[in-house]
Amino acid sequence: MSGKSAKGPRTPDAERRRAYRRLLLGNPGAVRRPLLFLALAIIVASIVSPSFFTVRNAVAVLTSSSFLIVVAAGEAFVVLVGMIDLGVESVFAACGMFAAWLYVIQRQSTGVTVLLTLLLGIAIGLVAGLLVTRARIPSFIVTLGTYWGFRGLALLFNGGNYISPNAVSPIRPFGFSGIAGNLGAIPILIVVMVGVVAVGQVVMTFTPFGTWVKATGSSEEAARAVGIRTFVIKMAVFSCSGVAAALGGLMITAWQDSIYPLTGQGYSLEAIAGVILGGIPFSGGRGSIVGAAIGALVIGVINDVIVLVGLPALYEYIFVAVILVLAGLQTRGGSFVK
Amino acid sequence: MLSVRDVVKAFGPVRAVDGVSLDLFPREVVGIIGDNGAGKSTFLSLLVGFHRPDSGSMVFRGRPVAITSPRIARNELGVEMIYQNLELSPDLTVWENLFLGEEIKRIGIFSDRRRMRNRAAEILRELNLKIGPLDIVSTLSGGEKQAVAIGRAILFERDVVIMDEPTAAVSVQKVEDVLGLVRRLKAHGKTVLLVSHRLEDVLSVADRIVVFYHGTIRKTLRNEGLGVSDLVHEMF
């Protein structure tokens, strides 16, 4: 017995269970839930691999997860309005290739390279947003298109080959490679990642725009009824997703000192898994950027453990699938993506 | 306060509103009744800016106005509509819903959350509600949600509040609570346009009752000694 009738009030037992659940997990969309998932992942990882729970490994996990976390932070904005961006991994790769091509092959300056790459990410997001809002094509289909289209574009930049500073003679080291350096003992990639998540969360919590994003996901009719231009909100969130993917592409290019057209394969679904794990339901309307970042970090922890234990990389897919289903169970009740 | 003269609105060959004239005064409740398709909803949509009349005029506080959008209706004329499905964001808190679209800002782009929460708490106390500003709207009862929607009208000092079937989605015990809120709006000096098929509710609170029929106002009645059967007789 669930303790709850279809139309009547909950029984005292059900109320007590609900109260305990709320105490443990917080309200739906709260950060407490993904933190619990992260704690569980760390505990299991530490048991399975004693070398996991060291400062050095923690820094390594945070660094290697920073790209996915930045992408997930952008994806979170889109999911919060009840939509989805499947194309982030291709935008990630295409923007990384674009940056490398601009800097190494076209010999542009660091400033121009970084600016144009981020603008490309924003432009891709705006186009996707236009197709969704004005052409009324479902976001699933539009971003499936960007997924294929920009993967193809990434392959075009250097005939399907990777780009590194060695592509030209004399070699031209990436001017933005400083992003892969350290600030004292802390990798700058981690600082950038924390900065992106912090800015995203501040926008969501402390600006009217953040409220309008959640309102659009919660009830677009209600948002429009009070005068919120929901089509502008949707275009803006796709731009957030695009620029985050572009920044991630820059970051990984600097870190790897090269970029491959197929870099970031699987990031779209991992970012979405991280967002769902972080407490944002597919229907949108509630959740946080910090939660999505924590969810993405759980994915990063799993990836790290798989490497430490020596399991084949394909096990990552199985673990992510299990966690995604478990995460989906805790956000059930939302409708399908719009 | 608001005068509507000979407004017409057609959708193709159908004249949904056909030369309607109506005057609205402060501190009164006007019941709007009529059969389905009588033109009530279309007329209200003209008042809140969802549609523009094909002809006719509107005068607000002595000056001609053109209500071209809900934003103008709300911000410039103080006309607020409370929809039958309430149009609240279920995942947001009470205070976020109260201020949605009209947030109080601080340092330009940031929301003044504390001021909004405090003001929301004041409004909830004024309405004698046992809900808090941080409550999530999806956890509220139908009557509480109705009260939140009414709270917006009080918060932003709307002069004209249009309520579309306010008691339709509310339990029987809560109907009187909602009607009490209507009386409180009137006591605040508002004009309330109450659209309802529940004629007993209209009789309970309305000062005047306007009967719509085939896109026109068939009759305007003062609510003095009227019964349900009188209204039904006028509607058909």
What would you call the shape of chain B?
globular
Spatial strand order of the main sheet of chain B: 6-9-10-3-11-12
> Which shape of chain A, going by the Cα principal axes?
globular
Mean pLDDT of chain B: 89
Could you characterize what this model shows?
The complex is a heterodimer of chains A (338) and B (236). Chain A contains 13 helices and 2 strands, in the order ααααααββααααααα. Chain A has helices spanning 12-25, 32-48, 55-80, 88-105, 110-133, 139-156, 188-206, 208-218, 220-225, 230-256, 267-277, 289-309, 315-330; strands at residues 182-183, 186-187. Chain B contains 8 helices and 12 strands. Chain B has 236 residues and is α/β, with parallel strands linked by helices. In chain B, strand 11 (208-213) and strand 12 (216-222) form a beta hairpin. Classes of the chains: A mainly alpha (338), B alpha/beta (236).
Q: Which secondary structure elements does this structure contain, and how are they paired or packed?
A:
The complex is a heterodimer of chains A (338) and B (236).
Chain A: H1 12-25, H2 32-48, H3 55-80, H4 88-105, H5 110-133, H6 139-156, E1 182-183, E2 186-187, H7 188-206, H8 208-218, H9 220-225, H10 230-256, H11 267-277, H12 289-309, H13 315-330
Antiparallel strand pairs in A: 1-2
Helix pairs in contact in A: 2-12, 3-7, 3-10, 3-11, 3-12, 4-5, 4-6, 4-10, 5-6, 5-10, 7-8, 8-10, 11-12, 11-13, 12-13
Chain B: E1 2-11, E2 14-24, E3 28-34, H1 40-48, E4 55-60, E5 63-65, H2 70-75, E6 79-82, H3 94-98, E7 105-106, E8 110-111, H4 113-126, H5 142-155, E9 160-164, H6 172-187, E10 191-195, H7 199-205, E11 208-213, E12 216-222, H8 228-235
Parallel strand pairs in B: 3-10, 3-11, 6-9, 9-10
Antiparallel strand pairs in B: 1-2, 1-4, 4-5, 7-8, 11-12
Helix pairs in contact in B: 4-5, 5-6
